[in-house]
Amino acid sequence: MKIKSAILFAGLSALVALSPLSAKADLIVNGGFETGDFTGWNLQHEAFPFAVGSAPEFPVHSGEFAAQIAGFSFDPNVMTQVIAGTVAGLTYTLTFWFEQSNALPNGLVVTWNGTPLVSESNSVHAYQQYSFNVLANGSDTLKFTAYNNPSFAYLDDVSLNIAAVPEPSTWIMMILGFAGLGYLAHRRRGTVQFRTA
Ligand SMILES: [Ca+2]
Protein backbone atom coordinates (compact mmCIF):
# COMPACT_ATOMS: atom_id res chain seq x y z
CA MET A 1 0.00 0.00 0.00
CA LYS A 2 2.81 2.37 0.93
CA ILE A 3 4.73 1.45 -2.20
CA LYS A 4 1.59 2.03 -4.27
CA SER A 5 1.26 5.47 -2.68
CA ALA A 6 4.89 6.23 -3.49
CA ILE A 7 4.37 5.13 -7.09
CA LEU A 8 1.24 7.25 -7.35
CA PHE A 9 3.09 10.24 -5.88
CA ALA A 10 6.01 9.81 -8.28
CA GLY A 11 3.64 9.39 -11.21
CA LEU A 12 1.76 12.55 -10.31
CA SER A 13 5.06 14.40 -9.88
CA ALA A 14 6.08 13.34 -13.38
CA LEU A 15 2.74 14.56 -14.76
CA VAL A 16 3.12 17.91 -12.99
CA ALA A 17 6.65 18.24 -14.37
CA LEU A 18 5.38 17.51 -17.88
CA SER A 19 2.36 19.79 -17.79
CA PRO A 20 4.09 23.07 -18.81
CA LEU A 21 5.27 21.50 -22.05
CA SER A 22 2.24 19.39 -22.82
CA ALA A 23 -0.29 22.16 -22.11
CA LYS A 24 -1.96 23.62 -25.19
CA ALA A 25 -1.52 27.36 -24.91
CA ASP A 26 -2.06 29.39 -28.04
CA LEU A 27 0.79 31.88 -28.43
CA ILE A 28 -0.83 34.04 -31.13
CA VAL A 29 -2.47 37.21 -29.84
CA ASN A 30 -5.94 37.71 -31.30
CA GLY A 31 -5.48 34.97 -33.90
CA GLY A 32 -9.24 34.71 -34.48
CA PHE A 33 -9.74 38.52 -34.58
CA GLU A 34 -12.44 38.16 -31.97
CA THR A 35 -11.48 41.54 -30.48
CA GLY A 36 -13.15 42.95 -33.60
CA ASP A 37 -9.91 44.70 -34.60
CA PHE A 38 -6.22 44.04 -35.34
CA THR A 39 -5.00 44.01 -31.73
CA GLY A 40 -1.68 42.15 -31.62
CA TRP A 41 -0.92 42.57 -35.32
CA ASN A 42 1.30 45.05 -37.18
CA LEU A 43 -0.17 46.24 -40.48
CA GLN A 44 1.58 47.66 -43.54
CA HIS A 45 -1.22 48.92 -45.69
CA GLU A 46 -0.21 49.07 -49.35
CA ALA A 47 -3.54 48.46 -51.04
CA PHE A 48 -7.21 48.18 -50.13
CA PRO A 49 -7.55 48.90 -46.40
CA PHE A 50 -7.33 46.10 -43.88
CA ALA A 51 -10.63 45.36 -42.19
CA VAL A 52 -12.11 43.08 -39.55
CA GLY A 53 -15.71 42.08 -40.24
CA SER A 54 -18.35 40.03 -38.52
CA ALA A 55 -20.50 37.13 -39.58
CA PRO A 56 -22.87 36.46 -41.27
CA GLU A 57 -22.23 39.18 -43.91
CA PHE A 58 -18.46 38.77 -43.68
CA PRO A 59 -16.80 35.41 -44.52
CA VAL A 60 -15.70 34.10 -41.15
CA HIS A 61 -14.18 30.72 -40.45
CA SER A 62 -15.18 30.59 -36.80
CA GLY A 63 -16.38 32.89 -34.08
CA GLU A 64 -17.88 36.25 -34.93
CA PHE A 65 -15.01 37.99 -36.74
CA ALA A 66 -12.35 37.43 -39.40
CA ALA A 67 -9.79 39.66 -41.11
CA GLN A 68 -9.80 40.97 -44.67
CA ILE A 69 -6.10 41.19 -45.41
CA ALA A 70 -6.11 42.15 -49.10
CA GLY A 71 -8.41 43.49 -51.75
CA PHE A 72 -8.87 45.39 -55.00
CA SER A 73 -5.22 45.82 -55.76
CA PHE A 74 -2.20 44.00 -57.10
CA ASP A 75 -0.15 45.79 -54.43
CA PRO A 76 0.21 43.50 -51.41
CA ASN A 77 -0.78 44.19 -47.84
CA VAL A 78 1.66 42.96 -45.21
CA MET A 79 0.62 41.80 -41.75
CA THR A 80 3.02 40.62 -39.05
CA GLN A 81 3.03 39.47 -35.45
CA VAL A 82 6.13 39.13 -33.30
CA ILE A 83 5.48 36.19 -31.00
CA ALA A 84 6.93 36.24 -27.52
CA GLY A 85 6.77 33.24 -25.23
CA THR A 86 8.11 30.51 -27.47
CA VAL A 87 10.98 28.36 -26.21
CA ALA A 88 14.05 28.50 -28.44
CA GLY A 89 14.80 25.17 -30.09
CA LEU A 90 11.31 23.71 -29.66
CA THR A 91 8.99 22.85 -32.53
CA TYR A 92 5.55 24.44 -32.71
CA THR A 93 2.58 23.82 -34.96
CA LEU A 94 1.31 26.87 -36.80
CA THR A 95 -2.16 26.70 -38.30
CA PHE A 96 -4.42 29.25 -39.96
CA TRP A 97 -7.44 29.42 -42.25
CA PHE A 98 -7.26 31.51 -45.44
CA GLU A 99 -9.71 32.30 -48.25
CA GLN A 100 -9.06 33.84 -51.65
CA SER A 101 -12.35 34.92 -53.14
CA ASN A 102 -13.17 34.47 -56.78
CA ALA A 103 -10.79 36.89 -58.49
CA LEU A 104 -7.47 36.88 -60.33
CA PRO A 105 -4.72 37.82 -59.95
CA ASN A 106 -4.13 37.04 -56.30
CA GLY A 107 -1.36 35.79 -54.09
CA LEU A 108 -0.30 34.78 -50.63
CA VAL A 109 3.16 34.51 -49.09
CA VAL A 110 3.58 33.42 -45.46
CA THR A 111 6.97 33.44 -43.76
CA TRP A 112 8.23 32.30 -40.35
CA ASN A 113 11.36 34.21 -39.29
CA GLY A 114 11.89 34.97 -42.97
CA THR A 115 11.57 31.36 -44.12
CA PRO A 116 8.75 30.85 -46.66
CA LEU A 117 5.97 28.50 -45.57
CA VAL A 118 3.46 29.37 -48.29
CA SER A 119 3.97 30.93 -51.71
CA GLU A 120 0.88 30.64 -53.86
CA SER A 121 -0.62 32.70 -56.64
CA ASN A 122 -3.88 32.66 -58.56
CA SER A 123 -5.36 30.05 -56.26
CA VAL A 124 -9.06 30.65 -55.70
CA HIS A 125 -10.62 28.83 -52.77
CA ALA A 126 -12.94 29.12 -49.78
CA TYR A 127 -11.46 28.90 -46.30
CA GLN A 128 -8.74 26.24 -46.19
CA GLN A 129 -6.60 25.18 -43.27
CA TYR A 130 -2.84 25.51 -43.55
CA SER A 131 -0.63 23.71 -41.04
CA PHE A 132 3.14 23.75 -40.54
CA ASN A 133 5.67 22.69 -37.95
CA VAL A 134 8.04 25.57 -37.24
CA LEU A 135 11.17 25.89 -35.14
CA ALA A 136 11.06 28.64 -32.52
CA ASN A 137 13.90 30.94 -31.53
CA GLY A 138 12.20 32.62 -28.55
CA SER A 139 11.10 35.75 -30.41
CA ASP A 140 9.56 34.80 -33.70
CA THR A 141 8.06 36.76 -36.55
CA LEU A 142 5.06 35.49 -38.49
CA LYS A 143 4.35 37.45 -41.67
CA PHE A 144 1.44 37.34 -44.13
CA THR A 145 1.70 39.10 -47.50
CA ALA A 146 -1.46 38.99 -49.61
CA TYR A 147 -3.07 40.63 -52.60
CA ASN A 148 -6.25 40.14 -54.59
CA ASN A 149 -7.51 42.12 -57.57
CA PRO A 150 -10.34 42.85 -57.83
CA SER A 151 -11.77 40.97 -54.85
CA PHE A 152 -10.67 40.04 -51.30
CA ALA A 153 -8.53 37.71 -49.22
CA TYR A 154 -9.56 36.64 -45.70
CA LEU A 155 -7.73 35.19 -42.71
CA ASP A 156 -9.03 33.60 -39.50
CA ASP A 157 -8.01 31.31 -36.62
CA VAL A 158 -4.26 31.77 -36.64
CA SER A 159 -2.80 29.63 -33.86
CA LEU A 160 0.58 28.48 -32.62
CA ASN A 161 0.92 25.60 -30.17
CA ILE A 162 3.71 23.35 -29.02
CA ALA A 163 3.97 20.43 -31.46
CA ALA A 164 2.19 17.24 -30.42
CA VAL A 165 5.31 15.08 -30.79
CA PRO A 166 7.33 15.18 -27.55
CA GLU A 167 10.59 17.06 -27.85
CA PRO A 168 13.90 15.68 -26.51
CA SER A 169 13.56 17.87 -23.41
CA THR A 170 10.12 16.33 -22.77
CA TRP A 171 11.56 12.83 -22.99
CA ILE A 172 14.31 13.82 -20.55
CA MET A 173 11.67 15.05 -18.10
CA MET A 174 9.69 11.81 -18.53
CA ILE A 175 12.83 9.74 -17.89
CA LEU A 176 13.59 11.82 -14.80
CA GLY A 177 10.00 11.26 -13.65
CA PHE A 178 10.29 7.49 -13.99
CA ALA A 179 13.71 7.53 -12.34
CA GLY A 180 12.15 9.40 -9.41
CA LEU A 181 9.36 6.81 -9.30
CA GLY A 182 11.88 4.00 -9.07
CA TYR A 183 13.91 5.82 -6.42
CA LEU A 184 10.85 6.49 -4.25
CA ALA A 185 9.67 2.88 -4.55
CA HIS A 186 13.13 1.66 -3.61
CA ARG A 187 13.32 4.06 -0.65
CA ARG A 188 9.87 2.97 0.55
CA ARG A 189 10.91 -0.68 0.46
CA GLY A 190 14.08 0.18 2.39
CA THR A 191 12.05 1.95 5.07
CA VAL A 192 9.70 -0.99 5.45
CA GLN A 193 12.62 -3.40 5.78
CA PHE A 194 14.27 -1.16 8.40
CA ARG A 195 11.13 -1.00 10.51
CA THR A 196 10.53 -4.74 10.41
CA ALA A 197 14.14 -5.51 11.30
CA1 LIG B 1 -12.68 34.45 -35.95
Give a quick set of tags describing it.
single chain; 197 residues; alpha+beta; Jelly Rolls; eight-stranded antiparallel beta sheet; 25% helix; binds calcium ion
Question: What's a quick, concise take on this entry?
Answer:
The protein is α+β, with helices and mostly antiparallel strands. A hairpin with a 2-residue loop joins strand 5 (106-112) and strand 6.
The overall number of domains is 1
The Cα radius of gyration reads 24 Å
Order of helices and strands: HEEEEEEEEH
Structural category: alpha+beta
- Which CATH class is shown? Mainly Beta
Globular, elongated, flat, extended or rod-shaped: what is the shape? elongated
Supply the CATH superfamily name. Answer: Galactose-binding domain-like
Q: Would you tell me the overall average pLDDT?
A: 86
Give me the number of helical elements. 2
Bound molecules: calcium ion
Strand runs, count: 8
Give me the CATH fold name.
Answer: Jelly Rolls
Low-confidence stretches: none
> Main sheet, how many strands, which sense, barrel?
8 strands, antiparallel
- The span between the termini is 19 Å
